Amino acid sequence: MKIGVDIGGTKIRAGLINAEGEVLKSVKAPCPNKEGKQAVLDFIADMIESLLTDEVDAIGVGVPAIVDERGFVHDCVNIPSWDVVDVKGSLERRFGLPVSVRNDCNCYALGVKSSEAGRKYDDLVCLTLGTGVGSGIIINGQLYLGQNSCAGEIGEIQYRDRNYEYYCSSRFFRDKGLSGREVSRAAAAGDPEALALWKEFGSNVADLLMVVMLAYSPQAIFLGGSLSEAYPYFEPSMRERLQVFPYKKVLESIEIHAMDAPDIILTGTVF
Questions:
Q1: Closest CA to 130 of 1, 253, 255, 7
Q2: Are 98 and 119 in a shared domain?
Q3: Count of H-run helices and E-run strands, the chain
Q4: Is residue 125 part of a domain?
Q5: Which of 7-11, 72-76, 145-149, 250-254 has the lowest mean pLDDT?
Q6: Rounded Cα–Cα distance for residues 22 and 36 (Å)
Q7: Does 147 score more than 80 pLDDT?
Q8: Dihedrals phi, psi of 12, to nearest 5 degrees
Q9: With pLDDT > 90 as the criterion, what percentage of the chain qualifies?
Q10: 237, part of any domain
Q11: What ranges in the chain are assigned the alpha helix state H?
């Protein structure tokens, strides 16, 4: 068995995973992202400790940041104290087990690829729409990382007056004094302003998808992250906006799925 840890911008989830990729037990807590470097590491280690059994032989960690080949995490925007952190070495010293550390969106991509829904695709891109925007890329069935695991950080590409992350993440709603959850509830009640916000959001996401299609031309794109739960509200405007894509054959063949399954990232950390 293995333990997987998903470090998000607002919460951390850890799970005990069997050889079949099933999450047998999990724990979740708010991320202490305002704390110092070691305090956050200790918090994560304590969560792992709560799941540890004699059968656990490895630990996997997904983190929203760049991860180098040594398992060092660099410039974790959502945890300001994590400028450079030896996550792999720190956890291996504490538990005496092998630890793998990856970008969380790469973990999502690996989890999707190993799932029933993703198994049939050799080339796919996974986007997480949540606190920020991240992506994981599978090419010829293999995770593509690029230099320092930085491939696919397309949320940082300039878009309008800011970047895609601003317009395709919870920041789009937060800077209006709202949360995605609040706007979803209002949309469910038929509120016209909430529905208009999701319509605008869907158009923004379509522009992001067109960047993915031009850069990678994958067989499929999977949308995860907390905002993907609102897919029914923004899918229509997203599909409408996609019709301006210049290569119709590409547009007709690509498949787009919403798949926010929390266990997917956890299983991807130990893939």
A1: 7
A2: no
A3: 10, 15
A4: yes
A5: 145-149
A6: 33
A7: no
A8: -120, 135
A9: 86
A10: yes
A11: 37-51, 87-95, 104-114, 164-167, 171-174, 180-188, 192-216, 231-242, 248-253, 262-269
Looking at the structure, do residues 75 and 209 belong to the same domain, yes or no?
A: no
Q: In the structure encoding, which two tokens stand for residue 205, read together?
A: 């996401």
**122-133 tens-digit pLDDT:** 999 999 998 889
Partners of 4 in beta bridges = 15, 60
**What CATH number is associated with residue 208?**
3.30.420.40
Among 85-94, 140-149, 225-234, which stretch is predicted with the lowest mean pLDDT?
140-149
Residues 42, 75, single domain; the answer is yes
What is the distance between the alpha carbons of residues 193 and 199, in angstroms, rounded to a whole number?
Answer: 10
Give the pLDDT of residue 8: 81
Mean pLDDT (whole number) for 68-77: 90
By residue range, what is the domain housing residue 208?
A: 107-265
- The Cα–Cα gap between 44 and 61 comes to 10
Query: Which tokens in the block code for residue 144?
Result: 């593509």
Backbone torsions φ then ψ of 136, nearest 5 degrees: -130, 140
CB 233 within 8 A of CB 195: yes
d(CA 178, CA 183): 7
- State whether 119 and 95 are in the same domain: no
CA distances to 76, 158, 224, 253 from 174, in Å:
20, 19, 19, 35
Give 187-202 pLDDT, tens digit per residue.
999 999 999 999 999 9
Residue 149: count of CB within 10 angstroms of its CB: 21
